[in-house]
Amino acid sequence: MQASIKAPVAPVSRQAWLTLFLLYLLNTMLVLDKIVFTVLMEPLKNEFDLSDLQLGLVTGAGYAVFFGLASIPFGILADRYNRRNLAASCLTFWSAMTALCGAATTFPALLAARLGVGVGEAGGGPASLSMISDLFEHRRRATAMAIFSLGSPTAALINLTMNTKVAHDYGWRTALYANCVIGLVLAFVIWLAVKEPKRAPLPADASGKSGTTLKATLKHIWATPSLRMMICGGAIAYTVVAGMSAFNFSYLVRVHKVDLHEVGPVLGIAISVAGVIGLFTSGRLADVLARRDERWRAWVPAITTLASIPFGMGAFLTSSWTVAVLCTAGLAATVTLWLAPGYALTQSLAPERMRGKIGAILFLLANLVGFGIGPPVVGMLSDLYASNGFAVPLRWALITGLFVNSISALLFLLAARTVREDLKRANV
Question: What is the DSSP string of 360-420?
């Protein structure tokens, strides 16, 4: 057993818990402004006369490409400058862009504003992951990341309850304006309440230049097999997350003939309860089981990712509304359970002044590969299946995308093969 595991766990300060809570709220808004269009797809489709491919571009590629392109510069900034200021500024910007989405009167204007949301959100994730990693040591890091990741099910609950209600009663534009106001208020609170965590000084190499440049970070990733596998597995897993989340609710509306504003609260509660329990359990389980064997930090993501396949099959093949709701909740939870242990492990495998860039690279790949490819491909497959006479073409497009998670699980298992040695080299 590693010596670091035997050492006593240092207490966590109240300021650290407050910071984690506010970053959880920031992540909630990040995810909410990312997924809000999933419950607005049908009114958008009708108002702008969009195809499923165009819908996929708005919810996926248009947003994700600019998110990805901006991630690396923001990751570099997070490793060099005040992360609290960076996170609050980015939240302010993407909230304003969300309001501009609501003001759009044409599809190009809507897409352009959506690109702005992607640029702003690109800075929130890397700054948050880096701060959490400095506030919580390795043995508590997966649990802390689980709390941060609870923003996903919280956002799902808000999206399927408040946003669907507001969109139905006052229009889809008002739902976007409401998100903007909440984001601006939270950004102000973060400015006031969060303190920049202490971290090691910037290292320098023999030439006097920074020893944690992007080039040095990429070399570190390549030289660390488990880190490389976790990043690749996470990027591919995001294609499933993005593809399923973009069209799942639209599928339920089309196939089960329900009004989303009426069933949204039921779906929101089911998905949120499953997500909260699952995410926290996955992070806590990884921390506890890793006391015996650090490979559990990669095994937990592999197991939970594979579990998403049977839940998805149940959700898309059943004719029962009750079964569809339960399986949709299970699917929504299991496709994201890798996040907490995955984020924690990738941060633990990186030096302090590389963590912002490591997080940025993870978000870059997740969004360019995940949200950039997932929704458009599912939309394209749906159009393709429809042109070939398939009954319920969106069903088969979603099922096709679902099985991509088997690749992610394999990569997580490959990461487990070297994770113990890689953590030792990282002095964990």
Answer: HHHHHHIIIIIIHHHHHHHHHHHHHHHHTT-SSHHHHHHHHHHTTHHHHHHHHHHHHTTHH
Would you call 254 exposed, middle or buried from its count of C-beta atoms within 10 A (0-12, 13-18, 19+)? middle
Residues 6+ apart with CB under 8 A from 254: 392, 394
Q: Which domains does the chain have, with CATH numbers?
A: 13-196+212-425 (1.20.1250.20)
d(CA 195, CA 200): 16
Query: What is the end-to-end Cα distance of the chain in Å, rounded?
Result: 12
pTM: 0.79
Number of residues assigned to the chain? 428
pLDDT tens-digit readout, 57-93: 777 667 777 888 888 999 999 888 899 999 999 999 9
Q: What is the mean pLDDT of residues 107-111?
A: 88
Cβ atoms within 10 Å of 146's Cβ, excluding its own: 27
Structure tokens at 279: 């995410």
User: Among candidates 62, 40, 326, 274, which has minimal Cα distance to 160?
Assistant: 40
- Residue type for 347, please? Q
Handedness of CA 205, 210, 216, 220 (dihedral sign): positive
Which residues are within 8 A (CB) of 64 and not within 5 positions of it... i.e. 6 or more apart?
118, 242, 367, 368, 370, 371, 372
Q: Which two tokens stand for residue 194?
A: 């969060």
C-alpha–C-alpha distance, residues 316 and 274, integer Å: 18
C-alpha–C-alpha distance, residues 378 and 376, integer Å: 6
Question: Any idea what DSSP says for residue 161?
Answer: I
Whole-angstrom CA distances from 23 to 52, 93, 123, 141 are: 34, 16, 13, 14
C-beta of residue 101 within 8 angstroms of C-beta of residue 117: yes
3-class state of residue 279 by DSSP: helix
Q: CA-to-CA distance for 345 and 232, rounded, in angstroms?
A: 13
pLDDT digits over 19-30, tens only?
999 999 999 999
Rounded-to-10 torsion of CA 74, 282, 333, 380? 50
Taking a C-beta distance cutoff of 8 angstroms, is the pair 100, 113 a contact? yes
For 147, 150, 380, 411, the CA distances from 280, given in Å and listed in that order, are 6, 7, 35, 23
Measured from the Cβ of residue 215, the count of other Cβ atoms closer than 10 Å reads 8
DSSP alpha helix (H) spans, 136-224: 138-149, 151-158, 164-170, 172-193, 214-223
The Cα 218–Cα 160 span in angstroms is: 39
